[in-house]
């Protein structure tokens, strides 16, 4: 490394000694090494770099091993680029230069191993690492865990979270990921950045990750002591940008929620042998007897072991010390006994965490001092000593006594020594709510300690904070969650009592998610399962079908899973619960039953809903079968629940049970191997086409699983396939027409389209057979009306092929629909029958259609039937009459947009029809859909005329007259082409003005929002800019607030910028009118992205002054007003990420005006810049304080 410039000759001279390569270079070459010259002064062009490399090659030319030596030259430009690619080395370089980033470190001894000790990572075969994302959650050895974690980081954007109690070696485990001596495929040390969020960080974690993402760095970011909410925010930040960085966070807390898109690796305490070895290295004078005893006491927790070892002298023997004596030794003076520190530690451990600042959270040390009788000074002194002994952790102003096992033991002593009423007297004060919540967090780990239960019970008594859980706010419910493990029976009884009120046991309850998750925990024990599940059912009944956001039913499903259920309830108990739901006769409960049975019948890919931890109670993944017989009994038990419905006299019951069994047949046969029971059921209920769905499922199983099935299983499956196959025309219709057609195509050999064609021919033939034997249609009953299948269309066309049977078929179908149909039933078969008749005899089709429209049962399907055949003038008139009558909802007319049915209607008639639809309730939404498809791709049969354009404008006015909730339902970009036609440059000025006035009035009244109208506004700006500007800025002081709402940037919302308007027209409209110039400048976005082709995200890397604002500044006489408008734009009202960063980037662009030709502009900018720098600095400090406050908490 040279400070001065190094040219070609200098490189040659540096590498040689008296004309020969230096000895050290010769040695490096013989070992296949590298020799690199770095100049701190040179910035090399390609030619300069080539010359210097030539000089280096000349210097080593005499060496025999010259080809083995790698040479290179780095100027400061290449060095800077290389450092940017390796952030870890860049951090090291900054520290060497005396410019470190506060709290951020490259790869080093993060685990704080003393420098005088070796830092070898200790490994044995003790299983202590768990992949929390796996289904089985098997514990692995440390070596396997290291490799597992490294594998998780193969892809950019990977996120891994290491969890485990304090003292189990999480930080050292992560450090080992980057060590080549440990396993294989170590992660690169040069690319890692580490920080402990317990320290003050400059920049904050969020700011540094923003910087790494913006500069596209491929780095590993390790964040120790990272709280769950901070992890989630950072993970989302990285995932949203598709960044190259990989995020690894470490935390001892284990919350119920599992972060999305995160691999969780959980560490348990290591073996006592490893801890003993660690102590022997750190305290060689203790001897193995003492280190083994300390390791035994610590239970594999290195933090406790190291703390205790530091309190033992070399001449002591601990072999006969009790656990209590060793515990007290942690807090004693050497060779002396002092209870002061122990007493202070007990009080501090009452809280899961506490704040030591006087001016934050009501001075929590003083509160703890008041309830314990100790002074604030004594407690402050105690926490400082605990930190020195590494029996507590620090994060900013926050402290926590750790590890938990130690803190829990201390808290038990405190509850014995402090009157419980003294604790409540302080914690029940409103200003101490956070401390009450933290104390509850601690109590949650003391379920086996009677004083803890007594204290918790006092919190649910009349007048106490948790006396009425139905009225508790979110903070008090967090307290309830924490203490629930102490007295689950009491909590369950309280929830049962509250659930008597339907408003409580409802998804409308804003805290439903907390109660549902808590009930899942309370359902763990077999004896409480029914009670907890019954209340869960009440919540689930209020959930809409298909809800995916925090779904209650999905959490209920987990309780009925063979694996990872989270409950020890026996299979019989769970089956009995489902049996009650089946027998209830409640439609919503039947819907829930479907989901529970889906979970019960699952045979692979089980997934848990979250961690099963519940305080310190011993919890696992729930009951699991120990033998094949128990597993088989699980599945057959749930199958037998369907036998009574299968034998029911009610068709709905039979069909439901048949559907459930058929849809799960493959899993139950191939994986669960319930062969005997399934065969008996099929022999009883499914012979000769009686059960088409089951036949199709059996065929699917044969197709997919035959190569893997044992011979006996395959033979039995082939046998029941033959037994269930359809044996007559009626059976074939039920098997080929009513189910989804793809279920057959998947089971046929050959090309897809050929298979479709073959199936279509078969179904058409079945239609002909049914037309020749009308009794078949009667036997089908309502089946052809309730089915949803493409094959129904083919069947309907087949029915029309028998000429002499068309009228009888028509009458029979009409009679059948009258009997079985409803206004929600889609008469597909009937419609396609009419189309088939039309293709052969159009006049007969119209005659039958006229008869159909006169049948009352087809009233709500009239438009559907009219659309089934090409629309004639008669049909168009019928549609108009239906729209004008108002008897049908507007949505029924949207079917005219499908398959371009509307193209048969001339523009003038179409315009009249749309006007009639507009007059219906919310008709404009249906009109929008029809217009959208009318002009889709402009592939229409008729030229555009003014009648249709006028209808478009009428529709827009209808749209703008509505509330924003209705406007949101209108299509966006798909409607652009329609807007362009209706609001073209030739549109009547009066109508355009009216539409613009409606936009302005709606936005002004907060009835409409600009981001919902962006497509309308964009067209108006393009075609009618001058009218729009006049409406905004010509009335008195103008509608400046409306203009800001319409055109100013909103993060995450699509807003049309006035910067998109043609610049020449904007300037021309302003003319020499200075008032117009100032108003328009205020509505402009002063800053635009420097390079629009680069993805900018929410925070672009660079912005410049927009051409629009610069042009307005150029023509303005009062330039100060325009500069003031630009200045106001620097501080955003809406932003994402760092506001300070946005201001910084915009200020840099603002500096461009220092070169403005007008002196008064330059002077104004110079006046503003110090204010901006001060504002940016203030915002940076505010953001840093906010981030640190959020990132440095324990809970």
Description:
This protein is mostly helical. The chain folds into nine domains: 8-85; 100-270, P-loop containing nucleotide triphosphate hydrolases (Rossmann fold), CATH 3.40.50.300; 271-330; 338-449, Arc Repressor Mutant, subunit A (Orthogonal Bundle); 487-609 and 623-630, no CATH class; 642-727, no CATH class; 753-870; 876-963; and more. It is built from 59 helices and 17 strands. The strands form five sheets. Strands 5-9-10-11-8-12-6-7 form an eight-stranded mixed beta sheet, with helices on both faces. The chain has a three-stranded antiparallel beta sheet with strand order 13-15-14. Strands 1-2 form a two-stranded antiparallel ribbon. A hairpin with a 2-residue loop joins β14 and β15. α15 packs across α16 (376-388), α33 packs antiparallel against α34 (711-724) and α40 (791-799) packs across α42 (828-840). The longest helix has 33 residues, at 1159-1191. The model has no long low-confidence stretch (mean pLDDT 90).
Assigned CATH architecture of the largest domain: 3-Layer(aba) Sandwich
| Overall mean confidence score, pLDDT | 90
CATH class of the largest domain: Alpha Beta
**Outline type:** globular
List the domain count as a whole number: 9
Low-pLDDT segments: none
Find the structural class using helix and strand composition: mainly alpha
What's the story with the biggest beta sheet?
A: 8 strands, mixed
Count the strands? 17
CATH fold node name of the largest domain? Rossmann fold
CATH superfamily of the largest domain: P-loop containing nucleotide triphosphate hydrolases
- What's the number of helices? 59
| Distance, first to last CA | 48 Å
Strand order of the largest sheet: 5-9-10-11-8-12-6-7
Radius of gyration: 38 Å
Helix content: 40-55%
Percentage of β-strand residues: 5-15%
């Amino acid at each position: 490394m040279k400070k001065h410039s190094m040219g070609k000759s200098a490189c040659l001279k540096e590498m040689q000694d008296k004309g020969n390569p230096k000895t050290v270079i010769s040695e490096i070459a013989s070992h296949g090494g590298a020799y690199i010259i770095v100049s701190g002064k040179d910035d090399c062009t390609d030619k300069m770099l080539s010359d210097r490399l030539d000089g280096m090659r000349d210097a080593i030319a005499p060496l025999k091993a010259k080809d083995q030596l790698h040479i290179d030259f780095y100027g400061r430009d290449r060095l800077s680029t290389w450092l940017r690619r390796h952030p870890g080395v860049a951090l090291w370089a900054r520290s060497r230069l005396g410019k470190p980033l506060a709290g951020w470190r490259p790869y080093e001894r993060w685990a704080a191993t003393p420098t005088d000790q070796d830092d070898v990572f200790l490994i044995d075969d003790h299983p202590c690492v768990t992949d929390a994302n796996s289904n089985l959650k098997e514990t692995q050895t440390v070596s396997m865990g290291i490799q597992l974690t490294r594998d998780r980081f193969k892809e950019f954007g990977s996120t891994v979270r290491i969890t485990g109690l304090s003292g189990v070696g999480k930080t050292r485990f992560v450090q080992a990921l980057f060590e080549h001596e440990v396993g294989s495929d170590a992660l690169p040390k040069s690319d890692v950045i580490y920080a402990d969020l317990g320290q003050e960080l400059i920049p904050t974690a969020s700011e540094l990750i923003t910087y790494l993402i913006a500069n596209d760095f491929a780095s590993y970011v390790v964040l120790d002591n990272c709280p769950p909410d901070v992890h989630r925010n950072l993970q989302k930040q990285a995932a949203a940008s598709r960044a190259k960085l990989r995020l690894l966070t470490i935390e001892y807390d284990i919350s119920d929620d599992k972060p999305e898109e995160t691999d969780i690796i959980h560490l348990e305490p290591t073996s006592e042998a490893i801890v003993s070895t660690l102590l022997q290295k750190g305290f060689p004078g203790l001897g193995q007897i003492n280190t083994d005893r300390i390791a035994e006491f610590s239970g594999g927790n290195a933090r406790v072991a190291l703390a205790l070892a530091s309190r033992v002298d070399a001449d002591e023997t601990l072999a006969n010390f009790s656990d209590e004596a060793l515990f007290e030794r942690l807090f004693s003076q050497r060779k002396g006994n002092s209870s002061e520190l122990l007493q202070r530690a007990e009080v501090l451990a009452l809280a899961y965490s506490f704040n030591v600042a006087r001016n934050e959270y009501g001075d929590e040390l003083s509160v703890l001092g008041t309830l314990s009788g100790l002074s604030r000074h004594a407690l402050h002194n105690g926490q400082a000593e605990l930190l020195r002994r590494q029996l507590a952790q620090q994060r900013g102003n926050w402290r926590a006594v750790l590890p938990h096992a130690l803190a829990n033991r201390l808290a038990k002593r405190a509850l014995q020594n402090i009157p419980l009423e003294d604790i409540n007297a302080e914690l029940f004060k409103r200003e101490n709510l956070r401390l009450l919540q933290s104390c509850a967090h601690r109590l949650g780990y003391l379920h086996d300690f009677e004083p803890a239960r007594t204290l918790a019970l006092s919190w649910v008594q009349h007048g106490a904070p948790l006396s009425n859980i139905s009225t508790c706010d979110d903070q008090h419910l967090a307290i309830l969650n924490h203490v629930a493990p102490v007295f689950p029976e009491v909590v369950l009884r309280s929830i049962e009592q509250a659930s008597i009120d339907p408003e409580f046991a409802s998804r409308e309850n804003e805290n439903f998610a907390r109660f549902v998750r808590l009930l899942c925990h309370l359902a763990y024990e077999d004896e409480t399962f029914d009670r907890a599940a019954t209340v869960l059912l009440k919540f689930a009944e209020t959930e809409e079908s298909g809800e995916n956001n925090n779904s209650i039913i999905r959490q209920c499903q987990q309780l009925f899973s063979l694996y990872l259920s989270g409950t020890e309830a026996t299979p019989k108990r769970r089956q009995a619960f489902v049996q009650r739901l089946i027998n209830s006769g409640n439609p919503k409960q039947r819907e829930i039953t479907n989901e529970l049975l889906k979970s019960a019948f699952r045979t692979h890919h089980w997934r848990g809903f979250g961690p099963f931890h519940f305080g310190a109670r011993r919890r696992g993944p729930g009951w699991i079968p120990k033998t094949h017989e128990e597993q088989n009994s699980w599945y057959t038990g749930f199958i037998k629940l369907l036998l009574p419905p299968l034998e029911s006299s009610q068709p709905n019951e039979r069909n439901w049970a048949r559907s459930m069994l058929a849809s799960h047949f493959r899993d139950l046969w191939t994986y669960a191997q319930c062969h005997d029971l399934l065969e008996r059921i099929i022999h009883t209920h499914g012979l000769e086409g009686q059960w088409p769905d089951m036949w199709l499922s059996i065929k699917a199983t044969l197709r997919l699983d035959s190569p893997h099935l044992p011979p006996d299983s395959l033979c039995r499956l082939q046998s029941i396939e033959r037994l269930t196959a359809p044996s007559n025309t009626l059976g074939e219709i039920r098997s080929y027409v009513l189910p989804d057609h793809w279920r057959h195509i998947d089971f046929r050999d050959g090309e897809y389209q050929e298979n479709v064609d073959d199936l279509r021919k078969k179904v058409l033939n079945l239609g002909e057979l049914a037309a020749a034997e009308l009794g078949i249609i009667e036997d089908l009953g309502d089946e052809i009306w309730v089915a949803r299948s493409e094959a129904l269309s083919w069947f309907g066309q087949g029915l029309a092929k028998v000429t002499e049977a068309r009228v009888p078929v028509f009458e029979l179908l009409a009679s059948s629909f009258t009997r079985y149909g409803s206004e929600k039933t889609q008469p597909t078969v009937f419609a396609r029958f009419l189309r088939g008749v039309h293709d052969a005899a159009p006049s007969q089709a119209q005659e039958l259609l006229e008869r159909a429209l006169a049948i009352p049962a087809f009233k709500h399907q009239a438009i559907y039937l009219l659309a089934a055949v090409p629309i004639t003038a008669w049909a168009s008139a019928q549609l108009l009459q239906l729209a004008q009558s108002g008897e049908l909802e507007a949505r029924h007319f949207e079917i005219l947009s499908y398959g371009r049915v509307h193209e048969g209607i001339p523009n003038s008639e179409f315009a009249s029809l749309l006007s009639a639809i507009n007059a219906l309730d919310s008709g404009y939404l249906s009109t929008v859909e029809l217009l959208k498809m009318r002009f889709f791709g402009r592939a229409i049969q008729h030229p555009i005329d003014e009648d249709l354009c006028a209808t478009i404008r009428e529709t827009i006015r209808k749209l703008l007259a509505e509330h924003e909730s209705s406007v949101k339902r209108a299509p966006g970009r798909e409607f652009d082409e329609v807007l362009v036609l209706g609001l073209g440059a030739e549109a009547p000025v009066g109508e355009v003005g009216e539409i613009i006035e409606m936009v302005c009035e709606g936005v002004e009244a907060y009835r409409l929002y600009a981001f919902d109208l962006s497509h309308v506004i964009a067209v108006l700006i393009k075609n009618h800019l001058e009218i729009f500007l006049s409406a905004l800025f010509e009335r008195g002081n103008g509608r400046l607030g409306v203009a800001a709402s319409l055109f100013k940037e909103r993060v995450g919302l699509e807003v049309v910028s006035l910067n998109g308007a043609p610049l020449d027209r904007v300037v021309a409209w302003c003319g020499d009118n200075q008032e117009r110039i100032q108003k328009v400048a205020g509505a402009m976005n002063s800053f635009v992205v420097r390079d629009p082709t680069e993805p900018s995200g929410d925070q672009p890397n660079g912005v410049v002054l927009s051409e629009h604002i610069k042009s307005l500044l150029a023509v303005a006489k009062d330039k100060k007003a325009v500069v003031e408008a630009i200045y106001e734009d620097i501080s955003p009202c809406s932003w994402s990420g760092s506001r300070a960063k946005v201001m910084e980037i915009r200020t840099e662009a603002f500096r461009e005006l220092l070169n403005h030709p007008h002196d008064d502009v330059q002077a104004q900018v110079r006046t503003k810049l110090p204010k901006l720098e001060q504002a940016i600095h203030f915002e940076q400090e505010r953001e840093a304080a906010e981030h640190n406050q959020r990132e440095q908490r324990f809970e």
